[in-house]
Every structure is written in C-alpha cells, then in structure tokens.
Design goal:
The protein is an alpha+beta fold. Helix content is about 25%, strand content about 25%. The strands form two sheets. The protein has a five-stranded antiparallel β-sheet with strand order 6-5-4-1-7. Strand 4 and strand 5 form a beta hairpin. The mean pLDDT is about 80.
Length: about 140
C-alpha cells in the first residue's frame, strides 16, 4: 500500500501577490493602431474638391435672399482651402441673418453661422432632395 502525502495547496490571486491591473491602459496600444488604420483609410477616400466659379457678394446675397424667402435648400462652398482642396459643399437652409452672420440650418437639424465673405459659391437645390422624397 502506497501512502500519498497530503499537501496543503495554497492559492493566491494576482492581487494578493502584488499585481496591479492597469485597466484600460493595457488596451491603448491596440486602440491606437486601429485608429491609425481608420485614419489612413479615411485619407485614402478623400478626393480633391475643385473650386467652383467664385461669385460676387451681390450674386451670393441674391441667392441667399431667394433661398430664405422660398425656404429652398442651398449648397454652399466655403472659400477655404485645406491641404490643396476645398471643403465639401454644406447643404443647408437659410434660417436668418443677424450680427453680421448668416444663420444656417443643416440637414441633420444642427445650426451654424457664416459670414458673407466666407462663401465662394452658392446654388439653390431641389427641395425634394432635402426631404428625400425623390425616388
């Protein structure tokens, strides 16, 4: 008959022997790599936007007035170049004017402001496109 020695097994948790979990910090390297990949993908998708014909302040004012009076949506190209390209057109409606700024309502419901000098080109849009009624 063989006797088996009895051993007392003591188990320790990592916290009991001094390990301190860094929490979310240990995942930060992976998140940054994912963010970098997403940014590279976004940069690859960016297309260069050409500048439309520059309009005078009088022409811009006339279109803004018609859009405000009729409630029609407009597309505004800002007179700002970033990285050799213009920004995408801002699709909006004219909500009003005050404090030397034009108040605009974006299609998602947010509001923003701009000055007349910041607009390069403006054009009226079809209201069916604004309300997504076109099939």
């Amino acid at each position: 008959m063989i006797k088996v020695a009895e051993f007392a097994i003591t188990r320790f948790t990592p916290e009991q022997i001094g390990y301190r979990d860094r929490g979310i910090l240990k995942w930060q390297g992976m998140i940054l790599a994912d963010q970098t990949d997403a940014l590279k993908k976004m940069d690859a998708e960016i297309t260069e936007i050409e500048g439309k014909e520059e309009m005078s302040e009088v022409e811009i004012s006339q279109v803004l007035h018609r859009a405000f009076a009729s409630g029609y949506p407009i597309a505004i190209q800002a007179n700002i170049i970033r990285n050799g390209s213009y920004y995408k057109d801002v699709v909006c409606k004219v909500a009003g004017y005050g404090g030397n700024k034009i108040h605009l309502q974006l299609i998602d419901g947010r509001t923003t402001k701009c000055r007349l000098e910041e607009i390069r080109n403006i054009e009226m849009l079809n209201p069916l496109d604004w309300y997504n009624k076109r099939k």
